Amino acid sequence: MISIVLPTYNERENLTLLVEAIFRVVSEPMELLIVDDDSPDHTWKVAEALEKRFREVRLIRRMEKRGLTAALNEGLSRSKGEKLLWMDADFSMPPEAIPRLTQFLDTYPVVIGSRYVQGGQDARGSFFPVLLSRWFNHLATSLLGGVRDYTTGFVAIRREVWERLGLSGRHGEYCIRFLYEAKCAGYPIHEIPYVCRPRQMGRSKTFASPRQAFAHGKDYLWTLFSLWIARA
After folding, report:
1. Which end of the chain has the least Cβ crowding within 10 Å, N or C?
2. What is the 3-state secondary structure (H, E, C) of 150-174?
């Protein structure tokens, strides 16, 4: 069985369409865990309605907690599948790519959707986020090696990998650390190309303001250089 974890915060406009799309493309047995940080837009109410429609859907509503990494860890800790996958809930990551990621888990313990291998593309449209992401991932590959898209967030793994490594960090920088630690632990990482699209509805959390973009960028750079220094 595959366990799909969707961390959400203010995604009520996207969630139903995304869940329906996932059920259309995933044919193997699955469970779908929606981990919502008590969204002010009441995303959790949409998730409650989806629980009633689909027996495979479970809502985890976190009343006093915040943070992407903690939400992912909580969802993964409550999951039951031997295959684990997580992705954003804004349609930037195409649901139709899920079967391609999970089928390779029979061969590789870690499979990621990648914007920066042949056939992949970052097509979010906004010039600054795309340029910054491309520059950062080029730098990360140069310093750490092994992976082209260290900030993907579109990840499929075998359960044993998460149980051994876990996830640590506050925001998207968890993915840099996780992929680097997986590589160092000897887990081969396979990258599947995908086209990253603009979020369908709502506002970006990472680039909601210049201040927020700077704060996230600072965390990314700190994580990258701390791993690189420790490697030296």
Report:
1. C
2. CCCCCEEEEHHHHHHHCCCCCCCHH
Instruction: Supply the angle between the helices 173-184 and 68-78 in degrees, to the nearest 10.
Output: 50
* Interatomic CA distance for residues 142 and 155, integer angstroms: 21
Give the tens place of pLDDT for each residue, 160-196: 999 999 999 878 899 999 999 999 999 999 999 999 9
Task: Measure the CA–CA gap between 169 and 172, rounded to whole angstroms.
Answer: 8
Query: How many Cβ atoms from other residues are within 10 Å of residue 136's Cβ?
Result: 17
Contact 99, 211 (CB under 8 A): no
The answer to whether the CB of 6 falls within 8 A of the CB of 32 is yes
Q: How far apart are CA 165 and CA 177, in angstroms?
A: 10
Cα(70)–Cα(76) distance, rounded to whole angstroms? Answer: 10
Contact 191, 117 (CB under 8 A): yes
How confident is the model over 1-41, as pLDDT tens digits?
999 999 999 999 999 999 999 999 999 999 999 999 999 99
